[in-house]
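Deviations from the work plan: none for this task. Representative record:
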Amino acid sequence: MASRTSFADLPCSVARTLDVLGDAWTLLVIRDAFLGRRRFSEFAESLPIARNVLADRLAALVEHGVIEKVRYSERPPRDEYRLTARGRELFGVIAALLAWGDRWLTPEGEPVPLDLVHLPCGHAMRAAVTCGECAGLLEARDVRVRANLGQPLPAAAAASAGPAVQPDAHA
Amino acid sequence: MASRTSFADLPCSVARTLDVLGDAWTLLVIRDAFLGRRRFSEFAESLPIARNVLADRLAALVEHGVIEKVRYSERPPRDEYRLTARGRELFGVIAALLAWGDRWLTPEGEPVPLDLVHLPCGHAMRAAVTCGECAGLLEARDVRVRANLGQPLPAAAAASAGPAVQPDAHA
């Protein structure tokens, strides 16, 4: 793979996150880890991906602290890959991607590929992204963005129907 | 760019979503659209990206119905790019990526780059991913996955600390 531009230095948590999760394979590796896969051979069997690319993505996830490599057998030496606390907190991102895909990309007349059952309430459910303060469903038009680092934000979008986050640089 | 493996045919909404959102540039274009950017020149100014790559990503987003191209001037002919309903619903994904990055990737002692203010409640807030049925915070260990298409899922992970989604193929 050619080296990729690093987004890590952009003063934006989305960009920083994408520097870690930067390509689709990486997110599919994480999805697989949430599905219980741990061994290199399990990931290799699940994903249509070259072994060197898989090894590269796993190594990057270990480097970023999303997955840890744990030796589970000494003779022969064998390692497995487990999500760290940081990695387990990506469940919300994966669940949000899945919910959007269920809603917009499921072929008409087909069931969604996977049901997620939330054990505490017992329901098959879809993830919702909500406000951490008031628990209301987050919609772009209800959110105003303030820059904390003096990063220029574009002038507020015209009031017509359109992108809805309201930039409001106060830095 | 070399052509990329298509994930669209994998029976998984995460994979289908990643086929649309497949690389970090695409997600940063969407982030910028939520920040109110609409014109090619605004995206080009915001993102350290070659113009042909930007044009390619915008065209793919139009093709997938995430963004629409709208002519706003006839003479000279000028178009702008606006999120569609489908695109606006990606706000949750972007907000979840941002929340994770705020939490895990903000350098120590630095403020988070952006504050999101939720206008209905008036608070600076972080997104939470919750159960669409009971509104409880989603955690991987509380979610069981059932395959609807007979797709094999790995045997349930061992009960030790680890990946927490519990596969439960019932197909």
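Chain A is about 35% helix and 20% strand.
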